[in-house]
Amino acid sequence: MSKLWGGRFTKETNKLVEEYTASISYDQKLAFEDIEGSIAHVTMLGECGIIPKEDADTIQKGLQTIAEKIQAGQVEFLVEHEDIHMNIEKMLIDEIGPVGGKLHTGRSRNDQVATDMHLYVRKVTNEMIELITKVQEALVEQAKQNVDTIMPGYTHLQRAQPILFAHHLLAYFWMLERDKERFSDSIKRTNWLPLGAGALAGTTFPIDRERTSELLAFSTVYPNSLDAVSDRDFVLEFLANASILMTHISRLSEEMIIWSSQEFQFIELDDSFCTGSSIMPQKKNPDVPELLRGKTGRVYGNLIGLLTVLKGLPLAYNKDMQEDKEGIFDTVNTLDGALKLLAPMIATMTVKQENMYNAVSNDYSNATDIADYLVTKGLPFREAHAIIGQIVLYGIQQQKYLLQLSIDEYKTFSPLFEEDIYAVLEPKHVVEARNSIGGTGHQQVLKQLELAEEKLENVLLDQA
Ligand code: ARG
């Protein structure tokens, strides 16, 4: 029997079963986390006198050698050893002899795999935070170059009120800031150590879980061994945070697609981020934002997939839980690609400021400001709103925008109108006037930019 657990069996495993139950084809991604966890575990075993110190040292060196060999691509992972844990244990025994068999003292694959996943999720969470920061930096840069760029702001995808393009871009900055906060907050819970829970009930050996936790830089150990081996909340949380992040990326992508269409012509994506059509030579397709939008589906799918895997499981470990891996690997891969493309795509897009301004000058998006004008002259807002409705209708019938109506025409709607109405209706003034906190007024947007840059600096400080 070549299996590490073969003693109780009288027959070889069916080949199809072996292949079906094996996870080595994908969980080899966890090789370094597995070795890191094992080194901490064996160090603790040695320190506690559970195995002789020399044995612990030998095992540790053996594990390091294996890590080097994996790094150098010199090892072959075998399906017959099922998963990364048993592949490495087998390699260890081959490397240093039977003493390698002492590594698994006082632990089980159940607390081992959970620990590997914690280490992995912690690592990729930090990677995501860094990648999100790069996108935020690109947004801030574009925003800085567009603090005077006026564009139509929309609700219901109908022109609503003019805004600054910088303001629109910064909206995404804050979405990403919350994404980062969510990822960063989740590390608190990822930092619980399962190792030492054994298969489900703890262990008879006098282990020191606090010490292992310290060696692996976790903040605490799971207080309940059943929970320790059954919990995948931290994976779910990562997938949920990733899903919200992808929602934001998808919305921004959708806007870039719309803005770069012939109908809008607000931006042009750099040639290096677009692709052509095999039949229509004139086409320049926004494939990248389209794929970012499309790949959002698989990220949601991975979240729903794992939620569904876990929902009916009795305590403690069940083999179903092996299904926690491919989904998160795929999500990490998808986010990694998305964030790495998004930052330079934002940085290299051309903003067609004139087209944006023309759009604002040829619509009724300054209508609210006439209402506000009458309100400052003492009219209740509701009455003002009704009057402006009539003016807009009149304008549409006369094919004139609000700046093109004469003062006599205005006066037929209300005696309160005077020459100063024209200054109020200029798009620049319309934007400037929205000077409430968080508004699109120039002053407010500059303040927002400052706040955003402070946030970016703080992240750098945290990492230092
Ligand atoms: N490959 C397994 C997984 O990913 C490791 C844990 C196996 N434990 C067990 N009792 N079969 O979940």
Please give a structural write-up.
With 464 residues, the protein is mainly alpha-helical. 62% of the residues lie in helices and 5% in strands. It has helices spanning 15-21, 24-27, 31-47, 53-71, 84-96, 109-145, 165-190, 209-215, 225-230, 233-259, 287-311, 325-348, 353-361, 367-376, 381-398, 407-413, 421-425, 427-432, 442-463, and strands spanning 150-155, 158-164, 192-193, 220-221, 267-268, 350-351. It has a two-stranded antiparallel sheet with strand order 1-2. Strand 1 and strand 2 (158-164) form a beta hairpin. Helix 4 (53-71) packs across helix 5. The mean pLDDT is 95.
Strand order of the largest sheet: 1-2
Q: H/E element string?
A: HHHHHHEEHEHEHHEHHEHHHHHHH
Number of strands: 6
Query: What share of the residues does DSSP label as strand, in percent?
Result: under 5%
Give helix % range: 55-70%
Pairing-aware structural class of the strands and helices? mainly alpha
Tell me the distance between the termini: 51 Å
For the biggest sheet, the summary is:
2 strands, antiparallel
Question: Cofactors and ligands present?
Answer: arginine
